[in-house]
Amino acid sequence: MTRTATAVRGVRTSRVRAPRPARIPAHAVRTHAWFTPWLLVAPAVLFLLAFNLWPTANAFFLAFTNVRVLSGGELVGFANFERMLSDAQLATALVNSIVYMLVCVPFLLLVPLGLAVLVEKKLPGIAFFRTAFYTPVVASAVVVALIWGWLLDDRGIINSMALQLGFVTEAIPFLTDRWLVLFSAISLTIWKGLGYYMVIYLSALGGVPRELHEAAAVDGAGALRRFWSITIPGVRNTMLLVSVMITVSALRVFAELYILTDGTGGVGGADVSVVMLIQMYARGFSGNLGYASALSLLLFVITLGPLLLIARINRGRD
């Protein structure tokens, strides 16, 4: 046997050498220009500038003016913010918005988690319940609010059944009492949001190792103990995300109250959310855009407070 050949039973065979890869001519290699990536992201950047950053900066500027829709304005300094201190309607709106947030956050933080744990199990017919819980999410908020209004009207189904069964002697003022209309809107928000946050929790539960539950069950831990010690720590980050989403949504509520109160905001127009108050001052040809912009900045600060608190809690636990 030599270096270039091998003998197998007297048969001389040559080594087979792999062919060299063909060279690509230098002129065939094309490189894109430096601005090509910028051209690809330009539509998204322009959309962000036109519909997010510019309106935000403009609202910040208008908050220090007395601009109206059809008339000009001038800089008034902190006059709009001083006006807030004596605005009784704003105080009512702040109370209602905070109550809305304080009621919605616990319900939409915990109830969807319980539903997700239940529908996660592989049982016959469980797909039907998953669909049923999620159906309100895909429905239009306006349509759902209209249906809710028909149900809660003085001559609606709920009052009619309550009167016929003798539970009450007169119609319950769901839509004409300040607090009842507020909690009616809260119940609508909770009912419509259960399925949405349930799906978020379902995706988070998929990341909790099954082995932990099995090991805890072998050690004698019950369902509640496993839920408290394994499930909740496993979805803690998702719970923080959901709490942020609920807080922002609750403080920015508009459609539910607007539809249930026929656009008045409540009894005598006094029962409003902060968003409805902004809308009231900004709409129409005589809208006070300066004061509405100042209210929007106030709403931003109010929304930022709970978010910073949640972030601080999360950082402290880490």
Query: Which regions contain 5 or more consecutive residues with pLDDT less than 50?
Result: 1-8
CATH top-level class: Mainly Alpha
Q: Estimate the helix proportion, in percent.
A: 55-70%
Per the principal axes of the C-alpha atoms, what is the gross shape? globular
The total beta strand count reads 2
User: What is the overall number of helices?
Assistant: 13
Major pleated sheet: 2 strands, antiparallel
* Strand arrangement, major sheet: 1-2
CATH level-3 fold name: MetI-like fold
Rg, alpha carbons: 31 Å
**Relevant CATH superfamily:** MetI-like
Helix and strand composition category? mainly alpha
- CATH architectural grouping: Orthogonal Bundle
Percent of residues in β-strands: under 5%
The arrangement of helices and strands along the chain is EEHHHHHHHHHHHHH
Brief write-up:
It is built from 13 helices and two strands. The chain is mostly helical and 318 residues long.
Keywords:
MetI-like fold; 3% strand; two-stranded antiparallel ribbon; disordered N terminus; 318 residues; mainly alpha
Write structural notes for this entry.
Helix content is 66%, strand content 3%. The chain has a two-stranded antiparallel ribbon with strand order 1-2. The N terminus is likely disordered. A hairpin with a 2-residue loop joins strand 1 and strand 2. By secondary structure, it is mainly alpha-helical. It has a single domain, classed as Orthogonal Bundle (MetI-like fold), CATH 1.10.3720. The chain starts with a strand and ends with a helix.
